[in-house]
Amino acid sequence: MSARIFDTQRFMRDRLRAALRRGTLGVLDIGSAKISCLVLRIDPERLDAVRPAGRSAQAGLDAVRVIGFANTQSRGVRMGEIDAIDEAERGVRTVLSRAQKHAGERIDQVAVAISGGAPRSYGVSGAAPVAQGEVTAQDIGAALVSCILPDFGPGRDVIHAQPVNFTLDHRTGLSDPRGQVGARLSVDMHMLTAAHAAIRNLAFVIRRCDLELAGVATAAYAAGLSALVEDEMELGAACVDLGAETTSVSVFLKRHMIFADVLRLGAAHVTQDIAHAFAAPLEDAERVKTKHGEVQATGRDDREMIELRRIGSERDFERRMITRTELIGVIRPRMEEILEDVRLRLDAAGFDCLPGQRVVLTGGGSQLPGLEDLATRILGRPVRIGRPLRIQGLPQAATAAQFSALVGLAAHAVRPQDECWDFELPGRYGPQGLRRALRWFRENW
Amino acid sequence: MRALIPLRRRRDPAPSRLRYRLARLWLRPWLRSAVTLWLPVAVIGVSGWAVLSQPLMMGRMRQAFDDIRASILAQPELMLQGLAITGGSQALHPRIAEAVGVGFPVSSLALDLDAVRARIEAISAVAEARVSVGPDRRLVISIREREPAAILRRGGTLYLVDRDGVLIAQLAQRAARPELPVLAGEGAEDHVREALRIVQVARPIAGRLRGLVRVGARRWDLVLNRDQRIQLPEDDPVLALRRVLAFNEAEHLLDRDIRRIDMRDRTRPVLQLGPDALRALRPAEPAPEGEET
Question: Can you give the residue range of the structural domain that contains B160?
Answer without folding.
Answer: 150-284
